[in-house]
Write a structure and sequence with these properties.
With about 90 residues, the chain is mainly alpha-helical. The protein is built from 6 helices and no strands. The radius of gyration is 23 Å and the shape is elongated. It starts with 10 loop residues before the first helix and ends with a helix. The chain binds zinc ion (ZN) (2 copies). One zinc ion (ZN) binds next to loops. One zinc ion (ZN) binds near residues 13, 23 and 39.
């Protein structure tokens, strides 16, 4: 063992409970980030309809992740609304 190298495997297939002979036969993505997994390539994201090289599950959908990030920000309050509207803020002092 001269060089330590990770066993190439497909985490997607492994997580889906496929046998080792299946998930060890390919990698999920190549070094350029293109999807290599035939199962995932055939899958179309129900959220953004990406598939093939850019395929992902809805869990990893960049669109869903953006929305979740926005959902964690507190909903616009009167304060932030007023802060963005100087006219409204000045009116509130009356
Ligand atoms: Zn796979
Ligand atoms: Zn997506």
């Amino acid at each position: 063992m001269r060089k330590k190298r990770e066993q190439p495997l497909c985490a997607f297939c492994r997580n889906n409970g496929l046998p080792p002979k299946d998930y060890l036969s390919h990698v999920l993505k190549d070094d350029k980030g293109r999807v290599m997994c035939p199962v995932l390539r055939a899958y179309t994201c129900p959220r953004c309809h990406a598939n093939g090289d850019n395929a992902h599950t809805i869990t990893y959908c960049p669109r869903v992740q953006n929305e979740e990030r926005e959902a964690q920000i507190p909903s616009p309050t009167t304060t932030s609304f007023a802060a963005a509207n100087p006219l409204l803020r000045s009116l509130s002092y009356w």
